[in-house]
């Protein structure tokens, strides 16, 4: 469990982070979302003390981290940044090995860990181990960056706009991969983004930040249906809100028995996918792969229920 | 038709028309100038052959490889003609007569060198091929010098008369050029790292080094004489440590001061050029300052550092000539002796090895820079 208590950071007259307190449960993803200059990146960097707090505390499993030397603290916390930040003069394997080497792991353990991580991130170890960063595509480099951050099995993974440098097709894949890997490993993640869609898709909890303060810290559904301030509502985008909410839920709960014509929809599709398909193909009901149907009426009823 | 080759052909043909050698009955007497065709017994066929190579070289379809081979052959023929002309003109037992290369020789040498460079540029050789070509060129020069074919050329005669001093001055030249570079690295690297980490000091430090760099070399050597002379005379023990107003010490100090700016500023720009994301990641993953410096910043800044070494080395090899003026030794000794005696051959004895040394060092360092970039994927 990660607890931030009254974290504050001043730069001269400016208060970049203002009295932020929040708790992230072990194994959850918390997303810090806000416009640029909202203090979200500074808040992230306060956690591994790349920026020193002016006041306040960071507790990992109840222990105050201020007593640890910074480099020891940072070796326990994974760190992945936009545009990967790989060391251009080191091979993929050496990049991933960075923290284990700093911690003095034996070589055999490091090598085993490198192969394990490469396989986890769908990079064939034999093919990728000895590549240089400039020989990787953007998506591959991003995955190596996250693998490097996870190498020493950190308690916590901090990610600063990790998908910011990827094009939209690769980004969607990278997001769902991250979600899968996080579920497998049970890592606690705090992720910074300016993209509310990314926040809704990835976050167990979302903290909306503006001018150094956390305006609302809630589950995605709560943020979408009960925005705490006008700023939060604007950030969500009132016209997009309905679709974002639909994208949170799978079609499982509203699937009912029945028969419908046309191409079936995947069983793990979201309500949003189903609505899009209905509108596009002009059907009132869609067959679901493996049996059952989803109807436009059911979708509508579900949305109305969410609103209340 | 290829424009660079046309330039080469024009230069070379003018060179053929100008005198290849100057023949003098003794070292300081006025002499006769002879073209290649006139100086050699078989002069006409050789001249026509060279002219043919130069003219055919204008053809566009000549491959880079063919150009390099033709240039190497041209240079070999040219230099051997010089040696042969010298032997034929001087005769076996004449110790006084001198045959020195004249304008035509130098112009043709320039023409064939350009042809070589043009070929190499078009070929875009791999690093390996570049090293091999450099080794090949050096072997060609060494073979020509050691063959004895050039023994009767004036410069080689001057060399034969000064074998011992030549070795001594060569050693002094190398010590001054490489020693001052070593000292500059010892002092400049830490200084560059220090001002990288303390940005407030960048302005003042670089300003001082800039001023040092702008002092004209002769003036700097000159001002060393009274300052160091005074120190040697006043500070007890300074003289015994080798401090003096003239000789090798002030030369070393002056060259060291000139080297500081390139070393410090390139260290700084090399470190500052490391991608911000790599630095951020290194800190965020828990490297200490020293680990970040030695594992990330310095290796990534290495190409800029090697570029500084290249600049300094080439600059110092040239500047060391001036050390000859204040008794510092080096090839400059021959240059200034020759100037005093109006003996051009002696000037050449100092100038040619200096040029060769600077050229080879520059090429070697350039290849090392490319190599360090290639292994980092920055090529």
TrEMBL record, chain A:
InterPro entries, A to Z: AAA+_ATPase, ABC_transporter-like_ATP-bd, ABC_transporter-like_CS, P-loop_NTPase
Annotated Gene3D superfamilies: P-loop containing nucleotide triphosphate hydrolases
Highest rank taxon of the organism: Bacteria
Signal peptide annotation: none
Record-annotated ABC transporter domain positions: 2-236
Family annotation (Pfam families): ABC_tran
GO molecular function: ATP binding; ATP hydrolysis activity
Keyword Transmembrane: no
GO BP annotations, alphabetical order: quaternary ammonium group transport
This protein's UniProt keywords: ATP-binding, Nucleotide-binding, Transport
Entry similarity comment: Belongs to the ABC transporter superfamily.
Protein name as it appears in the record: Osmoprotectant transport system ATP-binding protein
Organism of derivation: Paracoccus laeviglucosivorans
Organism taxonomic ancestry: Bacteria, Pseudomonadati, Pseudomonadota, Alphaproteobacteria, Rhodobacterales
From TrEMBL, chain B:
Membrane topology: Multi-pass membrane protein
Swiss-Prot/TrEMBL keywords: Membrane, Transmembrane, Transmembrane helix, Transport
Location, primary (coarse class): membrane
Gene3D superfamilies, A to Z: MetI-like
Subcellular location(s) per record: Cell membrane
Family: Belongs to the binding-protein-dependent transport system permease family.
Protein name: Osmoprotectant transport system permease protein
Organism: Paracoccus laeviglucosivorans
């Amino acid at each position: 469990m990660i607890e931030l208590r009254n974290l504050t950071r001043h730069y001269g007259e400016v208060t970049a982070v203002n009295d932020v307190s929040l708790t992230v449960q072990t194994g959850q993803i918390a997303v810090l979302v806000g416009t640029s200059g909202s203090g979200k990146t500074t808040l992230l960097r306060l956690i591994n003390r790349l920026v020193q707090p002016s006041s306040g505390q960071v507790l990992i499993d109840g222990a105050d981290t201020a007593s640890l030397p910074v480099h020891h603290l940072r070796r326990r916390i994974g760190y992945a940044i936009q545009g990967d930040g790989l060391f251009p003069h080191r091979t993929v394997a050496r990049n991933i090995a960075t923290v284990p080497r700093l911690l003095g792991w034996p070589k055999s353990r490091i090598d085993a860990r490198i192969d394990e991580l490469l396989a986890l991130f769908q990079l064939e170890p034999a093919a990728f181990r000895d590549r240089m960063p400039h020989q990787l595509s953007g998506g591959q480099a991003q995955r190596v960056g996250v693998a490097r951050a996870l190498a020493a099995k950190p308690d916590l993974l901090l990610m600063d706009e990790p998908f910011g440098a990827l094009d939209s097709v690769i980004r969607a894949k990278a997001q769902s991969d991250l979600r899968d890997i996080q579920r497998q490993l049970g890592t606690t993640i705090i992720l910074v983004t300016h993209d509310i869609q990314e926040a809704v898709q990835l976050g167990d909890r979302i903290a909306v930040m503006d001018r150094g303060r956390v305006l609302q810290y809630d589950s995605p559904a709560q943020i979408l249906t009960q925005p705490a301030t006008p700023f939060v509502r604007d950030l969500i985008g009132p016209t997009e809100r309905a679709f974002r909410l639909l994208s949170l839920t799978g079609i499982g709960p509203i699937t009912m028995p029945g028969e419908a014509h046309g191409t079936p929809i995947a069983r793990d599709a979201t309500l949003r996918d189903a609505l899009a398909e209905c509108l596009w193909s002009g059907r009132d009901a869609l067959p679901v792969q493996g049996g059952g149907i989803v109807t436009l009426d059911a979708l509508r009823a579900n949305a109305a229920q969410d609103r209340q | 038709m290829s424009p660079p080759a046309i330039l080469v052909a024009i230069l070379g043909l003018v060179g053929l028309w100008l005198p290849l050698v100057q023949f003098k009955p003794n070292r300081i007497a006025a002499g006769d100038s002879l073209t290649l065709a006139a100086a050699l017994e078989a002069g006409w066929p050789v001249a026509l052959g060279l002219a043919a190579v130069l003219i055919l070289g204008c053809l566009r379809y000549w491959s880079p490889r063919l150009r390099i081979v033709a240039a190497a052959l041209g240079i070999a023929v040219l230099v051997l003609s010089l040696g042969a002309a010298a032997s034929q003109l001087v005769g076996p037992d004449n110790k006084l007569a001198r045959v020195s290369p004249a304008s035509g020789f130098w112009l043709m040498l320039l023409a064939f060198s350009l042809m070589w460079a043009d070929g190499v540029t078009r070929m875009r050789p791999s690093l390996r091929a570049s090293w091999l070509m450099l080794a090949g060129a050096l072997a060609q020069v060494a073979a020509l010098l050691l063959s004895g074919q050039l023994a009767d050329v004036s410069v080689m005669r001057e060399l034969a008369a000064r074998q011992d001093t030549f070795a001594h001055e060569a050693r002094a030249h190398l010590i001054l050029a490489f020693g001052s570079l070593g000292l500059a690295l010892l002092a400049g690297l830490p200084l560059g790292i220090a001002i990288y980490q303390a940005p407030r000091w960048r302005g003042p430090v670089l300003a001082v080094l800039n001023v040092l760099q702008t002092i004209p070399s002769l003036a700097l050597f000159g001002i060393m004489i009274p300052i160091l002379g005074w120190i040697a005379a006043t500070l007890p023990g300074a003289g015994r440590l080798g401090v003096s107003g003239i000789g090798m010490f002030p030369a070393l100090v002056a060259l060291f001061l000139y080297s500081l700016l390139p070393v410090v500023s390139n260290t700084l720009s090399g470190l500052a050029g490391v991608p911000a994301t790599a630095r951020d990641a290194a800190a965020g993953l828990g490297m200490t300052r020293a680990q970040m410096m030695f594992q990330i910043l310095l290796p990534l800044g290495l190409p800029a550092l090697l570029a500084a070494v290249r600049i300094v080395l080439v600059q110092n090899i040239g500047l060391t000539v001036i050390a000859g003026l204040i008794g510092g030794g080096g090839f400059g000794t021959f240059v200034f002796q020759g100037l005093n005696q109006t003996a051009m051959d002696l000037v050449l004895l100092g100038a040619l090895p200096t040029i060769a040394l600077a050229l080879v060092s520059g090429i070697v360092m350039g290849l090392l820079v490319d190599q360090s970039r290639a292994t980092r994927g920055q090529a």
